[in-house]
Design goal:
- Helices cover 38% and strands 17% of the residues.
- The protein has a 3-stranded antiparallel sheet with strand order 1-3-2.
- The protein has 3 helices and 3 strands.
- The radius of gyration is 13 Å and the shape is globular.
- By secondary structure, it is an alpha+beta fold.
C-alpha cells in the first residue's frame, strides 16, 4: 500500500506566489501550497508551507524526492523573478 507520509517545508516565494496560476503550477508539480500558518491562513506573507500532494501508495523516498525536486523548481522560478526575468507560468505548468 505504501505510506501516508506528509513532508513539508516553509519557502519564501514572495514574487511567484502573487502570480496568477501559482497554485496550478504547484499542483502540476504534485505539491500543495498552504499559507505560512496552515490551510486557514488568509494573510499574504509570501511564505508558503509546501508539501507533497501524493501520500498513499508511494514510497517515502519517492515522496521526498518529488517534494525536493518540486521545491527546487519553485525556488528557481522565484530567483528568475527576483532578477527581473519574465516568467510564463502557464508554460511552466504545462511542461
Amino acid at each position: 500500500v505504501g505510506t501516508t507520509m506528509r513532508a513539508s517545508v516553509h519557502v519564501r516565494l514572495v514574487n511567484l506566489g502573487k502570480l496568477p496560476g501559482f497554485f496550478q503550477l504547484v499542483q502540476r508539480l504534485k505539491l500543495e501550497a498552504r499559507g505560512k500558518y496552515g490551510e486557514t491562513d488568509r494573510q499574504y506573507t509570501g511564505v508558503f508551507d509546501i508539501s507533497n500532494a501524493e501520500r498513499l501508495g508511494k514510497s517515502e523516498v519517492h515522496l521526498i524526492n518529488l517534494m525536493v525536486e518540486g521545491v527546487a523548481k519553485l525556488i528557481q522560478i522565484e530567483r528568475q523573478l527576483e532578477n527581473g526575468e519574465s516568467v510564463n507560468i502557464d508554460e511552466i505548468a504545462k511542461s
